[in-house]
Design goal:
With 240 residues, the protein is of the alpha+beta class. Helix content is 28%, strand content 32%. β1 and β2 form a beta hairpin. The two termini are 27 Å apart.
Length: 240
């Protein structure tokens, strides 16, 4: 019979820190015990513990404050790829306050790439809506949306800093997204993206591109979302 592999000291350290966070009911911003105390409690060396802490810092679970210690990071909203909830709904699930700043709201020709996704001629008019989405006033997502003006005439008249795009589509046009096809990749922030999301140019970001569709599978919106990993997580549930 094959023997079950014992976890390494590094794995024990990571799991032990996570267990401590969970079992002690730590709140965001609270400090973890001193490293010496964690080493003794987990039975690992200082080198192993620091490797585990570096891993959890990279995952934005904890943050290391020079000369102060290690602290539990604030909760981050989680985008479930199999969930059609909007930005504001997702942020409110963690008790955050969502807000938006409109960067562009203009009618432009679709162009070949957008036209292909929205089933339009290349010169068909689309609304280009670009917004910086924030969590408690901190930039977390840079979103670009494209909608057909032929399907949604007059949609450019709404103030999308004050109104939800999904609510406008439902209330004014009787349309709700029921399906989405999407692709998520890891990209590097351009100079503009970095400036908007308070990152350094070249920092890693999540890039989500997709098309939302209604019950008739006709395209409603093509979008590109860039997420800051420091403020957002992406997850997908599967059923086996």
């Amino acid at each position: 019979m094959a023997k079950r592999a014992e976890p390494s000291s590094y794995e024990r350290a990571v799991e032990g820190i996570l267990n401590h966070i969970d079992e002690s009911g730590m709140n965001p911003g609270e400090a973890l015990p001193p490293e010496r105390e964690l080493c003794d409690g987990l039975g690992v060396s200082r080198t192993t513990l620091r490797s585990a802490i570096s891993c959890l810092c990279a995952s934005h679970v904890i943050e290391r404050r020079q000369g102060s210690g290690n602290y539990l990071c604030p909760r981050r909203p989680t985008v479930q790829l199999d969930d059609l909830s909007g930005f504001s709904e997702i942020v409110r699930t963690i008790g955050g306050e969502p807000s938006s700043r409109v960067l562009a709201c203009e009618v432009v020709p679709a162009g070949a790439s957008i036209a292909n996704r929205l089933y339009l001629p290349e010169d068909g008019p689309v609304l280009h809506l670009a917004r910086l989405r924030m969590v408690d006033g901190t930039p977390a997502q840079f979103e670009s949306s494209y909608l057909s003006m032929m399907r949604f005439p007059g949609i450019d008249r709404f103030d999308f800093e004050e109104e939800s795009l999904s609510e406008v589509l439902s209330r004014e046009y009787g349309v709700e997204a029921e399906h989405v096809t999407l692709r998520v990749t890891v990209s590097r922030a351009s100079e503009r993206e970095a400036e908007l999301m308070r990152l350094d140019a070249g920092d890693l970001i999540f890039l989500e591109r997709g098309t939302r569709m209604g019950s008739d599978t006709a395209p409603i919106e093509y979008y590109r979302n860039r997420y800051s990993p420091s403020h957002f997580r992406i997850s997908c549930k599967t059923v086996m």
